[in-house]
Design a protein that fits this description.
14 strands, SET_dom, Beta-clip-like, 12 helices, Znf_MYND, 15% strand, zinc-finger, alpha+beta, three-stranded antiparallel β-sheet, binds S-adenosylmethionine, 403 residues, metal-binding, H3K4_H4K5_MeTrfase
Length: 403
């Protein structure tokens, strides 16, 4: 990672971790990263541009947005140029298949991540088609999958999504890649690279599904299974490593922020979690001189010494108990247990950060007390946190006021 302030080390309890390789001052920008496979949330798709992911100033209805040329009603755009760009690069492959995915009856959450993985597969296709030497898919493929830790219910859900996306690759993408020197089956094998956890995966795929696929697409059952297993692992990777893009533009600064898009930021995926993190983050909502829409910016909420692990939070910071004047011990214990349960369910680990250790004993954590004092917006009712500005000041991400 050239000129980076971060190095990667491996530890037994957390796997790969980012540590800073120099002193970092409070407020300093530590890392900026671009998204891979960014898509709007299904519930915001009618008013977020599916190409540039810009957020309109006011929540406009879909009739003010530009439809896709096939009027599929799954993507909308802020301009004709965005429609053209998305069509040429991605949507001409995805458009007809999106109907099939939306008809299955998946929840909005499943639909959103299915679309996102579909986009990552189309990007992979685009990279193969254009023989892109800078393969960003390889960066996604290095991320952890935690494939063995998901519950049976989640495994069944991922299997259903992997099946439909296997069909997507077989019908919409691989046929465009096969030519005289590369036959269909070989392309199916090589579409996604090999990976050790794919070999260890055990999914009981029904024979009837395999038979249908092998007859319909004239490929071997082994090639079909390999592709299915690789896509299953890609789903696990996405679920463990994705970031939700959030904004206060929809519901205002007295409400919690709304999720409007989802993306993987492959270079940022080695940040581990702490409930009292030393890094904060914000998303760029509009192109500027330094940043592009969708970029994620990480900054130091405390100063860090060389060799210290840089952590972010995977959940809401939940400062409420720290803002109240008197807090009951049992309330602190209960809220820590609830937060840990959520982390375990979604990210599959037990949090042992200093805040969790203190709160599990009913004590408010002093590092988080400082964080709230220094970074929580002090405006009454505002739910936002402060972020750094270009001129070394702080501004509230939600209401825009300065302390
Ligand atoms: C986005 S990845 C972070 C990078 C990861 N450590 C790796 O090796 O690729 C998220 C995963 O890292 C691990 N992780 C993150 N924060 C952790 C923490 N505080 N304690 C234990 N494991 C953690 C969990 O396995 C989690 O699912």
């Amino acid at each position: 990672m050239a000129e980076s302030k971060l190095d990667i080390i491996i530890t037994q309890d957390k796997g790969r971790c980012f540590v800073v390789n120099q002193h970092v001052s409070q407020g300093e920008i530590v890392f900026i990263c671009q998204p891979y496979g960014i898509v709007p949330f299904v519930i915001t798709k009618d008013f977020i541009c599916a190409n540039c992911i810009c957020i309109p100033k006011e929540r406009t209805s879909s009739n003010k947005m530009i439809e896709c040329r096939q009027k599929c009603h799954h993507t909308f755009y802020c301009s004709d140029q965005c429609e053209q760009h998305d069509w040429d690069k991605f949507h001409k492959y995805e458009c007809s298949f999106l109907d099939k995915i939306f008809e299955i009856g998946f929840t909005n959450y499943i639909l959103t991540y299915t679309r996102q993985i579909m986009r990552m597969l189309t990007l992979r296709f685009y990279e193969i088609m254009n023989k892109s030497c800078v393969s960003k898919f390889e960066d996604v493929w290095k991320l952890c999958s935690n494939y063995e830790k998901f519950t049976m219910k989640t495994k069944d859900e991922y299997e259903a999504v992997a099946k439909i996306l296997t069909e997507y690759v077989l019908t919409q993408l691989v046929p465009h890649l096969t030519s005289g020197d590369m036959d269909f089956t070989r392309m199916v094998y090589s579409f996604l690279p090999d990976r050790a956890d794919v070999e260890k995966l055990s999914i009981n795929v029904s024979n009837s599904w395999i038979n249908t696929m092998t007859h319909t697409y004239s490929i071997s059952s082994d090639a079909c299974k390999q592709l299915l297993f690789k896509i299953y692992i890609l789903i696990c990777i996405e679920e463990i490593n994705s970031f939700f893009l959030t904004t206060f533009l929809f519901d205002g600064w007295t409400q919690s922020c709304s999720k409007y898009a989802v993306a993987v930021y492959p270079q940022a995926s080695f940040f581990n979690h702490s409930c009292s993190p030393n890094l904060g983050r914000f998303f760029i909502e509009k192109d500027g001189d330094t940043f592009r829409t969708g970029d994620i910016v990480f900054f130091a909420m405390r100063s860090l010494e060389k060799g210290e692990e840089a952590c972010i939070t995977y959940t809401n910071l939940e400062p409420e108990l720290y803002i109240q004047e008197l807090v009951d011990t049992s309330e602190i214990i209960k809220s820590q247990a609830k937060r840990n349960e959520r982390l375990k369910e979604i990210f599959l680990f037990d949090c042992n950060c200093v805040r969790c250790i203190n709160e599990s004993k009913g004590i408010l954590d002093s590092s988080f007390v400082t964080l709230v004092k220094e970074f929580k917006c002090s405006k009454t009712d505002c739910t936002g946190w402060l972020i750094p500005t270009v001129d070394d000041c702080k501004i509230c991400e939600a209401c825009g006021s300065s302390p």
